[in-house]
Amino acid sequence: MTNSFFQHKQTAHCESGVISNLLGHYGLQISEPMAFGIGAGIFFGHLPFVKVNGVPGTTYRIWPGAIFQRVCKRLGVRMESEKFSTPEKGMAALDKVIEAGIPVGLQSSVYYLPYFPASYRFHFNAHNLVVYGKQDGQYLVSDPVMDTVTTIDPESLTQARFAKGFPAPKGKMYYPVHVPPTASFEKPIKAGIEQACHFMLKVPIPMFGVKGIRFLSKRVRNYAENPGDRKATLYLGNIIRMQEEIGTGGAGFRFLYAAFLQEAAVMLNKDELSKLAGELTKTGDLWRNFAFAAGRVCKSRSADNVSYKELSDMLLECAASEEVFFKKLAQVKL
């Protein structure tokens, strides 16, 4: 069957994009930046003990699924969410729900999605997309990071939903069972801002928030000795990949959060939020500059052009900028 009523909108990031598209389908209009902000999506973490494709993990946003859970809780949306022990059960459950005309959110691995360009298909198991119907044996897909709707064959979708590795999707699917026709965004905006400030400034673990950026800076400074030049290139490459290619990446998430603050400034009639949005875009530019410089080091396979010390100093500048920003944001009377 087809579901021609589902409206696809391209967005910058998969999880907040799926939220915007799914809730919009049921009449609750929420922009992608607003979903990202209410869900307190902005974050930073560097986890040397969590290996992604064999190298330490770096994240510029909160863990997968958290944005969705927070937005639903704060707006009074009830979701049905399931994981499955076998691919057969997972695909049968998906078919049953879309047969009823219900668009379904899925967690998947980018590697097995054939509509992605080959250079973007690597093992990342936390990509979100919507399947909204089935036609001629193909599933109809609204992937929020693509400019148009597309299709996928059952075998590829099964592989994407049940990919091995961390985090294992286990066929996760989710769809709304109750969406309020209208919702007040004022309290959710305030709760999202308070939570984001807490996670960036007050988590007492050195690998998270502003502390986490400084923690990474120290490690990058010593990359030439530990893990050594060859591995350092891989480590740096993954930091850039997580920043620039996964979802909107580190800088992109800063621009997305700035867009949220612009919207929130209007809704709450708080000009301070608009001014802070401008400051955060400058932080986004600092992250972009870091990625460019780190990319030069990776491509030359040596630190001839830019030293690891210089990269470390650039990260310290990002940390200082984010600390000033979030302290100011925490002091705004909402």
Summarize the structure.
This protein is α+β, with helices and mostly antiparallel strands. The protein folds into two domains: 14-30 and 78-178, Cysteine proteinases (Cathepsin B, Chain A, Alpha-Beta Complex), CATH 3.90.70.10; 186-331, no CATH class.
Ordered list of secondary-structure elements with their pairings:
Layout lengths: L13 H12 L6 H7 L3 E11 L2 E7 L4 H10 L2 E5 L4 H13 L4 E5 L18 E9 L2 E5 L7 E3 L1 H8 L11 E6 L7 H16 L7 H13 L2 H21 L4 H20 L2 H30 L7 H24 L3
Antiparallel strand pairs: 1-2, 3-8, 4-5, 4-8, 5-6, 6-7
Helix pairs in contact: 1-2, 2-9, 3-6, 6-11, 7-11, 8-9, 8-10, 9-10, 10-11
Organism: Chitinophaga arvensicola
Protein name: Butirosin biosynthesis protein H, N-terminal
InterPro entries: BtrH_N, DUF4872
Strands, count: 8
Shape category = globular
Query: What percentage of amino acids are in beta strands?
Result: 15-25%
Could you list the spans in which at least 5 consecutive residues all have pLDDT below 50? none
Number of domains: 2
Alpha plus pi helix count: 11
Largest sheet data: 6 strands, antiparallel
Structural class: alpha+beta
User: Which sequence of SSEs, written as H and E, runs from N to C?
Assistant: HHEEHEHEEEEHEHHHHHH
Mean pLDDT: 90
Distance between the termini: 47 Å
User: Residue share in helices?
Assistant: 40-55%
